[in-house]
Amino acid sequence: MAVLSPTQPAHGRSGPPPRPPRRVGFSQRLGRWDVKLSPYLYISPFFILFAITGAFPLIYTAFVSVHEWNLLGGQGDFVGVQNYVDVLAQPIFWKSLVNTFSIFVLSSIPQVLLAITLAALLDQNIRSATFWRMGVLVPYVVAPVAVSMIFGRMFADQYGLINELLGLVGIDPVGWHSDRFASHLAIASIVNYRWTGYNALIFLAAMQAVPRELYEAAVIDGAGRVRQFFSITVPQIRATIIFVVITSTIGGLQIFDEVRMYDPTGLGGPSRDWMTTVLYLYDTAWGNQKNFGRAAAVAWILFVLIIAIGMVNFLITRRISASEGRKTKVSGKERRAMIARARTAGSVAPASPSAAALTAPPTTPPPGPPGPPDGPWHRTTSGEDR
């Protein structure tokens, strides 16, 4: 007689008791916190320093700009936008703004062009490359005060080295401290001397990241050095060019050291011919006016101008890059169409074995006598032993 075991437990009997949930130890919790919080802790020093040295001064300057704030009397009453109105009503402010843009244009555009050309030369296979690459950084290491004082003596009106050299070639002496445009050229040369090598190293680092296979393919296609530079190097370092243009714009609109040390007085000349906006800010706060409220208003006006010009530069360079990308895509399509037409005509070999298998017509051996049969005892000279 067979005994059947029940598939269900008997009534009243229960299974094993449920296991209590395991407690998470403190070390495991600490490990989870480490995974979640450690990235924020690693990047927090930058944001802390930025909040102390960047965000707080910016907010505090905005607070000062809406108050009557004097160097001797301290904080005064709330005046709203009156400080901004007073600054915009001063003709010297507009003159300093024009001087700033003039020096910025004369320095930034040649600076970027010279830097990218110098980087292209340093990217070549030259002897003592490290020496030349470090040599272009020497002007940046020298103190800006020393550089400005030396160039100020070189561009002296009567006994300057530049006028002496111009006299050797028959050119009359130039009033580097009396002519407004000449003074802007002299100050722009100081800026270019200091920052061209620095930007050249940035461009050089970007050029060295360009794949060398592109240049090898260009050489095979017969492209020269100039064509390689404009067709390969410039498109590949487009993002670096945008970065250098924006940083040069910010630095060019904040120029102060070169203008301050260009002459003994340091106030932009007797007629304020080379007074920049930052130098005007310095004179407003620490000069005759001693008005911190207006100086803070000048700082915020300059900040807004820098943001606006930086955005314009970014949009222009982005549009140029986008148009170049569209041109590249169109040329690529045209090239593929030309290759397809050439393949159809049979003038260009297929690019891959799979394409050859699909496009080549089936081939048959030419008619003729059959080959010798397989076998070690076959003789081709006679009919014996076949």
From TrEMBL:
Question: Which residue ranges run through the membrane?
Answer: 40-63, 101-122, 134-156, 185-206, 237-256, 297-316
Q: Which Gene3D superfamilies match?
A: MetI-like
| Residue ranges of every copy of the ABC transmembrane type-1 domain listed in the record | 97-313
| Domain of life, per lineage | Bacteria
Please report the record's description of how this protein sits within the membrane: Multi-pass membrane protein
Q: Biased-composition ranges for Pro residues? A: 362-375
Q: Which keywords are on file for this protein? A: Cell membrane, Membrane, Transmembrane, Transmembrane helix, Transport
The residue ranges flagged as biased composition, category Low complexity, are 344-361
Region feature (Disordered): 1-23, 341-386
Protein transport: present as a keyword of the record? no
What family does the entry list?
Belongs to the binding-protein-dependent transport system permease family.
Q: What is this protein called?
A: Sugar ABC transporter permease
Source organism of the structure = Isoptericola luteus
Ranked from the top, the taxonomy reads: Bacteria, Bacillati, Actinomycetota, Actinomycetes, Micrococcales
